């Protein structure tokens, strides 16, 4: 019996079904792993407070449901999750869904701008370097790539902060907006953009070096293949050759990397978000670990696993589009 | 009237400037502006009647006022105007300020105090639940007179000393009949203070604006206060330098930056304004370990520590040697007539030999597992210095690195350590702070209490007697004796006594002019720009 659906939809449905047990396993595994860490959120809270008496601590544990055995806690959590109820964050005193939603925008904005900048500039520079391999241009580009690659993002962030905020006073040190500025409309947009310049630059320079190096290697490899020589013999111009014949094939490994990196989008910017105090998911995840805020952390991991599944699916679709020999089955 | 006020504020500014020891001339107060304050960590609650913590006071102190505050001259009436005690110490009478309104317009009255005392201070507030355990009831003889009734004598001096931290009334009409711990006003506090809460944007900032209806006429000067959360200490230092943040308290930047910014004439860097927030860097022993239960061994270890060196290198000079459980800021309860342990490696080695722990072939006498508290840079460094210094006298100290929950469980619940180090704050009176390190019988697992397996009935008795002694002089003598005893047998080593450090932009005027400034109301703070 065949369903009268286009193959792409069947493929998507099948992938979706496969994803469910994967996500459930991830959630159970993470829950148990987190329970192995010494101490719980009450310990973290008491640490923040500078002390409390035993009754106070026992009452909090009871209130947070931490006095139950682990399997009961797990069961309670999983049944709630099945209805997409992420629970309550005891650190932020808000529903986890609200906490995540507030942070998601900042992280997506930061990561989308950084990755797209890194991707476009990276492949462009990589392609140029490959076409002029071993020339001065190539050496300059490759050296820059190496420098960006080797610079830790916290160092890059702090140095930029020192130069552009402390010495020159051009850009704000951190945060997502000028707090007592009360900007509206376009002023607000400009204000946010100014706050995002340095974090975006810090993040994208690192990613840029990945794409640059990979693209350069990939283009050089493809450029030597037979079909390129054939195309050239048939009189294709250099630009047509580059765009239609070389780039399209050279992009495959770069797309794989993009897919992989996009999966780490939510967690990948912990350092940059923390240094620039951007209220994003990366800094939230870090805080949640320190505070043992189980519900929030599980919520972030759930969101991450969904993004990984979706991005993997999109990457596969993109493969098929770029290389028609690949079939989706 | 207007000129009178101005004169008064000029005088105030002058006093503050002289107090700060800086050569600032009294200048005309400028009104308005936004002060921006650095905070390292987020706060789960902003209700100071539910959580005694400087992190909470740093924000809520401007919004919610205590009955009594502390100034350099002594205890200062805030919401209470007078206090007295009955002969037998069983009833403390407080006169309350009249004509004060909550930020929502309701009048502040004795009902609020009685409600908060019985529903929050006694059952729910950390440290306070021990202090108020004998509180039976609070009677309102009229709208502005509250009588606290105790079942055992309560020394008035102890009560008053505790009030700046543990005496914040909250509005009864917003809490009565609700689930107090989950009341939404816990993160959006309504108080009587000079600033009104506006919003708490998680992960970013808290904002408060001027209370136009404030009871101190003509105050506050500022329009607005913003607290910015910056987790990264280097980024916080950059924000201070870029002028985006005006003050960072409680050692909110790294010690290297503290030292660097102290040479920068845009900033005031120092420990002034923390006299009431003094802490001890400690070495804690697990007396369940028979080696450490030997007093000779503990004394030898004290001789092995070069405290002056640690103060110079780790604390950059902003500290002094500790002299037992009461710091210098403890007032009359403090004495410096105690035994001190000079740095002497040879003496330490000789004492260990004598105690029956000679060095083995590899130079090691015995091994210890040490847990350093993860409370910031200088605490970690103090732990590392301790390990190095012990190596010198033949004790091999293995450091077990852990994060906050790991440390608290490892030391205070599982007792899985030989030695530990951390810092502990002294809260105005030994009865509500450092005595819990020495008193045995603390419930298992309670952080920052005697979980060290240390039992000494003589000291226990002295602690209990001092807590209910009504004569201040006798009481002070008892604490002197406890200090001497502690320094003699070292159940806990209160090695270094240090206030916290603030980095403050000089544009802020009248800053750090009280001994618990970061927790105080800042009604007279203004911005020179």
Question: What do you see in this structure?
Answer:
- The complex is a heterodimer of chains A (329) and B (529).
- Chain A is an all-alpha fold and 329 residues long.
- Chain A folds into two domains: 48 residues, no CATH class; 219 residues, MetI-like fold (Orthogonal Bundle).
- Chain A has 13 helices and two strands.
- Chain A has a two-stranded antiparallel ribbon with strand order 1-2.
- In chain A, a hairpin with a 4-residue loop joins strand 1 and strand 2.
- In chain A, helix 1 packs antiparallel against helix 13, helix 5 packs across helix 8 and helix 5 runs parallel beside helix 13.
- The longest helix of chain A has 39 residues.
- The radius of gyration of chain A is 24 Å and the shape is globular.
- Chain B is α+β, with helices and mostly antiparallel strands and 529 residues long.
- Chain B is 29% helix and 20% strand.
- In chain B, the strands form five sheets. A seven-stranded mixed sheet of chain B has the order 8-9-10-1-11-20-12, covered by helices on one side. In chain B, strands 13, 14, 15, 16, 17, 18 and 19 form a seven-stranded mixed sheet that branches. A four-stranded antiparallel sheet of chain B has the order 4-5-7-6, covered by helices on one side.
- In chain B, a hairpin with a 5-residue loop joins strand 4 and strand 5.
- In chain B, helix 9 packs antiparallel against helix 11 and helix 14 packs antiparallel against helix 15.
- The longest helix of chain B is centred in the first third of the chain and has 18 residues.
- Chain B is globular.
- The N terminus of chain B is likely disordered.
- Classes of the chains: A mainly alpha (329), B alpha+beta (529).
- At the A-B interface, helix 2, helix 3, helix 5, helix 7 and helix 12 of A face strand 10, helix 7 and helix 13 of B.
């Amino acid at each position: 019996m065949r369903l009268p659906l286009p193959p792409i939809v069947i493929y998507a449905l099948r992938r979706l079904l496969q994803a469910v047990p994967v996500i459930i396993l991830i959630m159970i595994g993470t829950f148990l792993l987190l329970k192995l860490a010494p101490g719980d959120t009450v310990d973290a809270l008491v640490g923040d407070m500078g002390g409390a008496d035993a009754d106070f601590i026992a009452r909090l544990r009871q209130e947070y449901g931490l006095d139950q055995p682990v399997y009961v806690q797990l069961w309670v959590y999983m049944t709630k999750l099945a209805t997409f109820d992420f629970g309550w964050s005891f650190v932020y005193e808000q529903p986890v869904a609200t906490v995540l939603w507030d942070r998601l925008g900042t992280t997506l904005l930061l990561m989308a701008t950084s990755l797209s900048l890194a991707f476009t500039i990276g492949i462009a520079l990589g392609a140029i370097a490959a076409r002029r391999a071993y020339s001065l241009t190539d050496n300059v580009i490759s050296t820059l790539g190496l420098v960006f690659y080797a610079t830790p993002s916290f160092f890059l962030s702090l140095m930029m902060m020192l130069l552009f905020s402390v010495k020159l006073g051009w850009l704000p040190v951190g945060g997502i907006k000028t707090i007592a500025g009360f900007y509206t409309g376009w002023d607000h947009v400009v204000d946010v953009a100014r706050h995002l310049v340095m974090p975006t630059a810090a993040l994208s320079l690192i990613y840029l070096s990945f794409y640059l190096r990979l693209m350069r290697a990939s283009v050089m490899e493809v450029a030597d293949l037979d079909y390129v020589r054939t195309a050239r013999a048939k009189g294709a111009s250099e630009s047509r050759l580059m765009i239609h014949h070389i780039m399209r094939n050279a992009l495959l490994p770069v797309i794989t990397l993009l897919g992989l990196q996009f999966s780490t989008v939510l967690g990948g910017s912990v350092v940059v978000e923390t240094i620039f105090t951007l209220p994003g998911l990366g800094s939230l995840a870090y805080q949640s670990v320190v505070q043992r805020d189980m519900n929030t952390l599980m919520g972030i991991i759930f969101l991450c696993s969904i993004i990984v599944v979706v991005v993997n699916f999109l990457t596969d679709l993109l493969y098929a589009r770029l290389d028609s020999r690949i079939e989706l089955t | 009237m207007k000129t009178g006020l101005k004169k008064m504020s000029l005088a105030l500014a002058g006093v503050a400037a002289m107090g700060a020891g800086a050569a600032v001339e009294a200048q005309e107060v400028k009104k308005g502006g936004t002060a921006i304050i650095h905070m390292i960590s987020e706060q789960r609650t902003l209700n100071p009647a539910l959580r005694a913590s400087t992190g909470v006071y740093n924000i809520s102190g401007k919004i919610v006022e205590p009955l009594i505050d502390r100034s350099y001259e002594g205890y200062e009436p805030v919401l209470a105007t007078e206090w007295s005690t009955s002969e037998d110490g069983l009833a403390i009478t407080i006169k309350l300020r009249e004509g004060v309104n909550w930020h929502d317009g309701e009048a502040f009255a004795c009902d609020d105090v009685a409600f908060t005392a019985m529903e929050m201070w006694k059952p729910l507030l950390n440290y306070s639940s021990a202090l108020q355990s004998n509180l039976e009831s609070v009677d309102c003889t009229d709208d502005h007179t509250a009588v606290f009734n105790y079942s055992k004598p309560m020394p008035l001096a102890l009560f008053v000393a505790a009030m700046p931290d543990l005496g914040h009334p909250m509005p009864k009409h917003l809490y009565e009949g609700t689930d107090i711990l989950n009341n939404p006003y816990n993160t959006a506090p309504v108080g009587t203070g000079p600033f009104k809460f506006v919003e708490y944007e998680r992960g970013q900032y808290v904002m408060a604006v001027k209370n136009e209806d404030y009871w101190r006429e003509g105050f506050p000067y500022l329009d607005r206060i913003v607290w910015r959360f910056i987790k990264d200490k280097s980024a916080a230092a950059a924000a201070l330098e870029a002028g985006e943040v005006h003050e960072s308290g409680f050692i909110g930047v790294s010690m290297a930056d503290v030292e660097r910014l102290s040479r920068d004439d845009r900033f005031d860097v120092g420990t002034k304004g923390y006299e009431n927030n003094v802490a001890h860097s400690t070495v804690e022993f697990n007396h369940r370990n028979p080696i450490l239960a030997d007093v000779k061994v503990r004394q030898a270890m004290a001789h092995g520590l070069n405290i002056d060196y640690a103060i110079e290198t780790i604390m950059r000079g902003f500290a002094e040697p500790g002299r037992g459980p009461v710091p210098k800021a403890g007032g009359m309860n403090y004495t410096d007539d105690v035994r001190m342990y000079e740095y002497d490696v040879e003496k330490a080695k000789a004492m260990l030999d004598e105690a029956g722990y000679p060095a083995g072939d590899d130079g090691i006498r015995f091994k210890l597992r040490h847990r350093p508290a993860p409370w910031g840079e200088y605490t970690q460094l103090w732990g590392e210095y301790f390990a190095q210094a012990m190596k010198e006298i033949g004790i091999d100290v293995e450091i077990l690195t852990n994060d906050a929950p790991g440390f608290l469980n490892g030391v205070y619940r599982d007792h899985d350590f030989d030695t530990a180090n951390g810092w502990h704050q002294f809260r105005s009176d030994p009865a509500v702070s450092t005595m819990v390190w020495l008193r045995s019988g603390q419930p298992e697992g309670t952080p920052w209490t005697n979980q060290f397996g240390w039992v000494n009935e003589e000291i226990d008795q002295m602690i209990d007697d001092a807590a209910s002694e009504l004569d201040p002089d006798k009481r002070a003598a008892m604490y002197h004796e406890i200090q001497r005893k502690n320094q003699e047998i070292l159940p806990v080593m209160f090695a270094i006594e240090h206030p916290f450090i603030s980095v403050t932009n000089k544009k802020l005027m009248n800053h750090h002019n009280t001994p618990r400034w970061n927790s105080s109301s800042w009604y007279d703070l203004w911005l020179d720009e």
